[in-house]
UniProtKB/TrEMBL annotation:
Residues 93-182 form the Cytochrome c domain. The keyword Signal applies. InterPro entries: Cyt_c-like_dom (IPR009056), Cyt_c-like_dom_sf (IPR036909). This is C-type cytochrome. Gene3D superfamilies: Cytochrome c-like domain (1.10.760.10). Keywords: Heme, Iron, Metal-binding, Signal. Transmembrane segments: none annotated. It comes from Chitinophaga pollutisoli.
Length: 213
């Protein structure tokens, strides 16, 4: 009998504790405890156009996924730039994109016909008094793609840098388009279809042998 009474007392105490913990006035109500990593529990908010966020730059030496490797030559490294080859092999679509970018960013000075007669010069009637260099005649015709890319990156004489308007790949596409036009503007040849595998010599000879008999 005593044992039964003890069991009932323990059960009553446990039930009371459970009800107290579930009640609105329990000791742990509205108290989630300590957070181990609050910055991960509640991420810090940034204003997108704030000065702090605008000043954040990629880690030094890193390259954005899918982007080309950075250009390491300095403005004064003109001689080395002449030796830099275009890393892109442009197909028809690549040349069309190069032309589109050229017309937007270069045609206003150098002319969409690459003749140095863009709207800013306009045969001497435009706001710019001196004729910009033409790409199809004169000394620029002998520039390598590396030299033209270098000029587009750092500027030259009165021409400013276009590195902020065109990324590395876009600059190479523009240069590739200019060089293609200097070489006659021929579109790259389409890849020839794969030749059918040659027939086995024994199989090919079989009809001839049959005809002889």
């Amino acid at each position: 009998m005593k044992r039964t009474s003890n069991i009932l007392i323990v059960a009553a105490l446990a039930g009371g504790a459970f009800l107290a913990s579930c009640g609105n006035k329990g000791p742990h109500h509205r108290n989630p405890g300590k957070i181990y990593a609050p910055d991960m529990y509640e991420s810090r908010a940034y204003e997108f156009y704030s000065a702090r966020l605008a000043s954040m730059k990629p880690v030094e030496g890193t390259v954005k996924r899918g982007a080309m490797l950075p250009y390491h030559l300095k403005a004064e490294d003109t001689a080395q730039a002449n030796l830099v080859a275009n890393p892109l092999v442009l197909d028809k679509a690549g040349l069309e994109e190069g032309k589109r970018l050229y017309d937007i960013y270069c045609g206003v000075c150098h002319g969409t016909k690459l003749d140095g007669n863009g709207p800013l010069y306009k045969g001497g009637d435009g706001p710019y008094p001196a004729a910009p260099p033409a790409f199809l005649t004169g000394k620029v015709l002998g520039y390598t793609e590396g030299r033209m890319f270098h000029v587009a990156t750092f500027g030259f004489n009165v021409m400013g840098s276009y590195a902020s308007q065109l990324d590395i790949e876009q600059r190479w596409k523009v240069v590739g388009y200019i060089k293609n036009m200097q070489n006659g503007g021929k579109a790259p040849a389409e890849a020839a279809p794969a030749a059918a595998p040659a027939a086995d010599s024994a199989t090919a000879a079989a009809p001839a042998v049959a005809a002889a008999h």
